[in-house]
Design brief:
With 272 residues, this protein is of the alpha/beta class. The chain has twelve helices and ten strands. Helix 10 packs across helix 12 (250-271).
């Protein structure tokens, strides 16, 4: 059993436990459930420069503890200050050290920016959880869902006003699971079964993603030239977590990348 399979097994156990404690009706009564959702896809679609989706991530199965001495409301507010287009916050506890508390603290500190609930969504119940904590976007990972599950969950997410980011790791996954109820396609450069990373994955898959879907590249992104190359290949959003989180000041790391991107972009224009 690989890491992804272990995570999904544990996720089903968590969901069963959560359903015993709180019903969908209970989730619908949360104050944040009624908030008006923000659109990330529209922000990215209109972008003329690479847009960074900054992630708050404490640990990962492959790296272990990345940063245990940070507060979500501080880090995410710094991200927003430095120009993040959206925030991604992990809510998986066992494998990534995230929590609903992390998400809520980030949400309350940054009410006017789109936020992605980063987790392994395998059940409709989790969509209501996401809505109840103030998420605007949910993630559907093709590697752990059937095409039918992707379509059903995406459709229900839209019914709740949530946008859908479909994450794929191969052209085959893309072709099997892409459907009209998806808003954005995220290409994860990290293989969730082996945890090896290559940004070539995004370049290979890019030409197979229809223009009607907003493209986002995820994982292994730290070189500004690579980001600009992917931007020219049609990617509008770049989800970055570990690159920032492994530093003592993630917000400053984002600010530095923004400066590097600006310089690299200007240099490329001079060469044209």
């Amino acid at each position: 059993m690989n890491i992804l399979e272990k995570i999904v097994v544990r996720k089903h156990e968590e969901i069963a436990e959560s359903k015993k404690l709180r019903s969908i009706s209970d989730l619908e009564k949360e104050a944040l459930f009624l908030r008006r959702n923000l659109s990330l896809s529209s922000v990215l679609r209109e972008a003329e420069t690479p847009q960074i989706i900054s992630e708050f991530k404490r640990k990962s199965p492959s790296k272990g503890i990345i940063n245990a001495r940070v507060e979500p409301e501080i880090v995410t507010a710094d991200y927003v200050k430095e120009g993040a287009a959206a925030l991604s916050v992990l809510t998986d506890t066992d494998f990534f050290g995230g929590s609903f508390d992390d998400f809520l603290r980030a949400r309350l500190a940054n009410p006017q920016i789109p936020m992605l609930r980063k987790d392994f969504i395998v059940d409709e119940y989790q969509l209501y959880e996401a809505k109840s904590i103030g998420a605007d976007i949910i993630l559907l990972i093709a590697a752990c869902l059937s095409p039918e599950q992707v379509q059903t969950l995406a459709r229900q997410a839209h019914a709740l006003g949530l946008e859908v980011l479909l994450e794929v790791h191969s052209t085959e996954e893309l072709q099997q699971t892409l459907c009209d109820d998806v808003d954005m396609v995220g290409v994860n450069n990290r293989n969730l079964k082996t945890f090896e990373t290559s940004t070539e994955t995004s370049l290979i898959i890019s030409e197979h993603i229809p223009d009607s879907f907003v493209k986002i590249s995820e994982s292994g992104l730290q070189d500004p030239q690579t980001i600009l190359e992917l931007f020219r290949a049609g990617y509008k959003g770049f989800l970055i977590g570990e690159t920032f989180m492994k530093t003592t000041d993630p917000g400053a790391a984002l600010a530095d990348l923004q400066v590097q991107l600006s310089k690299a972009s200007n240099s490329n224009l001079l060469l044209l």
